[in-house]
Write a structure and sequence with these properties.
Elements (H helix, E strand, L loop, with lengths): L20 H23 L9 H6 L6 H18 L11 H11 L2 H13 L5 E7 L5 E7 L14 E7 L6 H4 L3 H8 L5 H11 L1
Antiparallel strand pairs: 1-2, 1-3
Length: about 200
């Protein structure tokens, strides 16, 4: 069974002014769609066909560039759309908030660590908040479409929050001002979704 491009859980313009509608249209309808079709082509007729994307990535041969790049791109964007919401922003609560405070000392310290991972990622890549078995959370960054599910990549664990810092994610609105885009992202984070991912993977 082939992978399908998921529908956005909100309208293209729902995240404005933080992320503009035209960027969302291109990012979802062109870039994510491209990763989806290329992933399907890369796994067709192989023993990876029919497996979940999580299973494919966690057992990945890192030399298989077609699956690494397009499988990562598919998974990363599926997560990205869902951890944003037009009603987002604020701070997490409950167990997730406790885990963040335990790991970083405060929400502000987490925000600084996550923002730094995003701002200092050279070239294209992602910033992540991951959870390890037992509930410990950690921030890290990855290049290109790599993610911590892949063998030996970054901090390991399961991604529960990701920020795309490829230029196609922000350049129409922010040009070279990546720090402004990173700051704006905190206004649209869907902490309820992140908390659900934390509870399911701790």
């Amino acid at each position: 069974m082939s992978f399908e491009l998921p529908a956005l859980p909100y309208a293209h313009d729902a995240l404005e002014p933080h992320i503009d509608a035209r960027t969302m249209e291109i990012h979802h309808g062109k870039h994510h769609a491209g990763y989806t079709s290329k992933l399907n082509a890369a796994i067709e007729g192989t023993d990876l066909a029919g497996k979940s994307i999580e299973s494919i990535l966690s057992g990945l041969d890192m030399n298989n560039k077609g699956v690494r790049n397009n499988g990562g791109g598919y998974y990363n964007h599926c997560l990205f759309w869902e951890v944003m919401s037009p009603n987002g922003g604020g701070e997490p609560s409950g167990e997730l908030a406790d885990a963040i405070n335990d790991a970083f000392g405060s929400f502000d310290a987490f925000k600084e660590a996550f923002s730094n991972a995003a701002k200092t990622q050279f070239g294209s890549g992602w910033a992540w908040l991951c959870v390890h078995k037992g509930g410990k959370v950690e921030v890290c960054g990855t290049p290109n479409q790599d993610n911590p599910l892949m063998p030996g990549v970054a901090c390991g664990g399961t991604p529960i929050l990701g920020l795309d810092v490829w230029e196609h994610a922000y350049y129409l609105n922010y040009q070279n001002r990546r720090p402004d885009y990173v700051s704006a992202f905190f206004n649209v984070i869907n902490w309820d979704n992140v908390a659900e991912r934390y509870a399911a993977n701790k």
